[in-house]
Specification:
38% helix, 6 helices, 17% strand, alpha/beta, Rossmann fold
Length: 164
């Protein structure tokens, strides 16, 4: 039996406190809620999913490095490290898989220091400001990008309903 392609999701610092931390900015969902929704979406797309959260830059870098072996796509919310971590950027540069940067809030509507992402110019795409839905959209996009059968079927259905 053919194994499902693996997509890795990395959640950065302070995301373990979602639901309690500034819900007006980040939404009411907990990280466990987001991961459960991602698991459900992954099952519907026929992809395998691994999620990881750390408040430590070095652990995030090591997890990115682990994606060099067998991971077919990566979703990352570097959180505060978005604006500061050259190390995370360098680790992402080593990957040869589609990678999507996700932010729950719209970083461009926040404080000026949050406007600059050190990873946006090296990832496949960025989703910002759509709350927890951004993660599910990223997962669906990666399934299409990696050419997984269920993702291709979904894309075909969506394309056929496009009025343009």
């Amino acid at each position: 039996m053919k194994s499902s392609p693996l997509i890795l999701v990395i959640h950065g610092p302070n995301l373990n406190l979602l639901g309690r931390r500034e819900p007006a900015v980040y939404g009411p969902q907990t990280l466990a809620d987001i991961d459960r929704a991602l698991e459900k979406t992954a099952r519907s797309l026929g992809v395998a999913l691994e999620t990881f959260q750390s408040n430590h830059e070095g652990r995030i870098i090591e997890k990115i490095q682990s994606a060099l072996d067998g991971c077919k796509g990566l979703i990352i919310n570097p959180a505060a490290y978005t604006h500061t971590s050259v190390g995370i950027r360098d680790a992402l540069c080593m990957l040869d898989v589609p990678t999507i940067e996700v932010h729950l809030s719209n970083i461009h509507r926040r404080e000026p220091f949050r406007h600059k992402s050190l990873v946006s110019d090296i990832v496949t795409g960025t989703i910002s400001g759509l709350g927890a839905d951004g993660y599910r959209l990223a997962l669906t996009a990666l399934a299409w990008r990696i050419g997984h059968a269920e993702g291709r079927k979904l894309k075909k259905r969506l394309d056929s309903s496009d009025p343009s």
